[in-house]
Amino acid sequence: MHEKWMQRAIDNALKAWGHTSPNPHVGAVIVKDDQVIADGWHKKAGTHHAEKDAITNAREAGKADDLVGATIYVTLEPCCTYGRTEPCTEWIIESGISKVIYGCTDTNPEHAGRGFNYLLQAGVQVEGPILEEKCLWINRFFFKWINDNKPYVILKMAQTLDGKIATESGQSQWITGPEARHQVQQLRQGCDAIMVGGETLRQDNPSLNVREIDHPRHPQRFIWSRKEFTGDYKAFTQAGGATFCHAQNKSEWQDFLTQLGTNEVSSLLLEGGGWLASSALKAQIVDEIQFFVAPKILGGEASRTSVSGLNPLSLNEAIDLEFLETKTCGKDLLFIARPIY
Ligand SMILES: NC(=O)C1=CN([C@@H]2O[C@H](COP(=O)(O)OP(=O)(O)OC[C@H]3O[C@@H](n4cnc5c(N)ncnc54)[C@H](OP(=O)(O)O)[C@@H]3O)[C@@H](O)[C@H]2O)C=CC1
Ligand SMILES: Nc1c(N[C@@H]2O[C@H](COP(=O)(O)O)[C@@H](O)[C@H]2O)[nH]c(=O)[nH]c1=O
Ligand SMILES: [Zn+2]
């Protein structure tokens, strides 16, 4: 039963996918006698948190009395400090809600465990975690950023079964099908920043924006290059333009990520090509791999590969991964993995 309601709270949280950064995605549902009193979710930094949203929705629906003795399911530990808004713990206590069931603890050092203690001291029951892995996963960008002041980095590639991303001459559109490419749009919607290599920019002239999604939120664009250059490329001429990144080694990449983190960029999507992929992997900045694999074999020694610039002399140099998930996207497969450095 707890799982059912927590799943509803997670679904609520994801209604704002891509809109809450640098805040987390948080959802809630208030339940009494196995009936929903109100749903709520955090819509945007600076607006109501999920708990306050649900309580306000209940009151506006004339259900203030039903809040007394009700249970609130919330995906993240309620906050108890004054940030952009007042603490949710106060709202919960004052509403008469008697039980909080949470999905995961807020690892933000300012909050971790403090929200629970505050509620317990006020006589509110606290239970959890419920569906903890899912609740941590939907906020993996936030947790990385709040704890390390650096964005969570995802390396995404679309490759043939034999690991090719383009022909020798640079033709790559399209390797994966429409369902996989739609999934990429969802991913872009959730990411604050996106980057491609200079060669990808010149070959593909990519838009690097969000399409096919209601209420799109476009990522900041970055081009990885050894030099600054101009040209009639969409990434330069369309809304927002693009910024160059010249990071070459681990410390330069770390400095670049710190600069992004300081500017409240909590996630960075690297969309290839193969030289960018290898530089990021070598610098050990990649937190997550998303490789889309099409049921195609391109072959060819000179075809471009998804990770080009590594020249391992021994198998010991392979980067070990832990597979997290495999999904079918139309005719393609998506492998989600985490590098083990
Ligand atoms: N299927 C897929 O998912 C994808 C396919 N592609 C395809 O892949 C091809 C491009 O990929 P790829 O050829 O691997 O190139 P990349 O896109 O990875 O870009 C290489 C460029 O990165 C810049 N760079 C900066 N530092 C370095 C460095 N130390 N070493 C090398 N390059 C550096 C250079 O730009 P500069 O010369 O300006 O200094 C270089 O030209 C295109 O054909 C594109 O269509 C691309 C992305 C994804
Ligand atoms: N070829 C290829 C991809 N290529 C990536 O998508 C970029 C194009 O972005 P846009 O112009 O915004 O659609 C391109 O430059 C490269 O980074 N992606 C995929 O999901 N599947 C594919 O088969
Ligand atoms: Zn709050």
Q: Can you put this structure into words, describing what you see?
A:
The protein has 341 residues and is α/β, with parallel strands linked by helices. The protein has helices spanning 2-14, 50-60, 88-95, 114-121, 132-137, 140-148, 178-190, 198-204, 234-237, 250-262, 274-282, and strands spanning 27-32, 35-41, 71-76, 99-104, 125-127, 152-160, 164-166, 193-197, 220-224, 242-245, 267-270, 288-294, 304-305, 320-329, 332-340. The strands form three sheets. Strands 10-9-8-11-6-12-15-14 form an eight-stranded mixed β-sheet. A five-stranded mixed β-sheet has the order 2-1-3-4-5, sandwiched between helices. Helix 4 links the parallel strand 4 (99-104) and strand 5 (125-127). Helix 2 packs parallel to helix 3 (88-95). The model has no long low-confidence stretch (mean pLDDT 96). The structure holds NADPH dihydro-nicotinamide-adenine-dinucleotide phosphate, ligand AOF and zinc ion. NADPH dihydro-nicotinamide-adenine-dinucleotide phosphate binds at residues 157-159, 165-166, 170, 172, 175, 196-200, 203-204, 224-227, 248, 271-276, 279, 304, 308-309. Zinc ion (ZN) binds at residues 49, 51, 78-79, 88. Pathway: Cofactor biosynthesis; riboflavin biosynthesis; 5-amino-6-(D-ribitylamino)uracil from GTP: step 3/4; Cofactor biosynthesis; riboflavin biosynthesis; 5-amino-6-(D-ribitylamino)uracil from GTP: step 2/4. Its cofactor is Zn(2+). Residues 1-127 form the CMP/dCMP-type deaminase domain. Converts 2,5-diamino-6-(ribosylamino)-4(3h)-pyrimidinone 5'-phosphate into 5-amino-6-(ribosylamino)-2,4(1h,3h)-pyrimidinedione 5'-phosphate.
